[in-house]
Amino acid sequence: MNYKLDKELKTMPELWDLYDADRNRTGKTHERSPHLPQGTYHIVAHVWMRNDKGEWLISKRTPNKDFPNMWETTGGSALAGETGLEAAVREAREELGVTLDPEKGVLFRTDRRDRRDYPACPDFRDVWVFSLEWPIENIVLQENETCGAKWATSDEIYAMMERGAFIGNEIYGYLGELFAAFANEPENSPV
Questions:
Q1: Which one, 17, 24, 80, 156, has least CB within 10 Å?
Q2: Beta strands 42-50 and 123-131, pairing class
């Protein structure tokens, strides 16, 4: 695995489109912050990538981030002008060097979270699933974001959660539903 640093992303402020409670764009943007104007939301994409063995591609957060050194799925906030799908594809490319075909993404679920506790802020969470065959040695880690990546089964992810190595239900409360929908047999998978 290799590291990369996108210097352009480091120097530009991250702007988010703001949405109302019905997911209508307000026409306003907000610089990345845990404190959004009252009654507004932004879009967050979770990106689950699954291979034909039924394993999920997960990444390890760097020590300088919230939830340091914990494993997670790829994800992040949509930038101004992006859809949840576009954010999912961009985040996979930035954090892991993975190229996803937007036409092959399946929107597993979307929900509105009215969180106002740091570091969380209110958002619409889009959970995307992609079928992906990508050798682990071709992963390109994003410096200051990711420090490891691996393929893991649903059972391995649950075991990691139990021992505190994978971010838990506070972020991924939908995991049971996701793993049941995408059973280990690839022919049962919607992707």
A1: 24
A2: parallel
The domain in which residue 83 lies consists of 2-188
pLDDT above 70 covers what percent of the chain? 87
Q: Residue 12: which residues within 8 A CB-CB, separation 6 or more?
A: none
Tell me if 70 sits within 8 A of 167, measured CB to CB: yes
Block residue for tokens 């682990």 = 136
Residue-wise burial string across 106-134, b where 16 or more C-beta atoms lie within 10 A, e elsewhere:
eebeeeeeeeeeeeebbbbbbbbbbbbeb
- Identify the band that residue 126 occupies on the pLDDT scale cut at 50, 70 and 90: very high
CATH number of the structural domain spanning residue 142: 3.90.79.10
Helical (H) or strand (E) element with 91: helix 84-96
How high does pLDDT run on average in the chain? 89
Q: How many domains does the chain have?
A: 1
| Residue that has been written with the tokens 């949405």 in this structure | 19
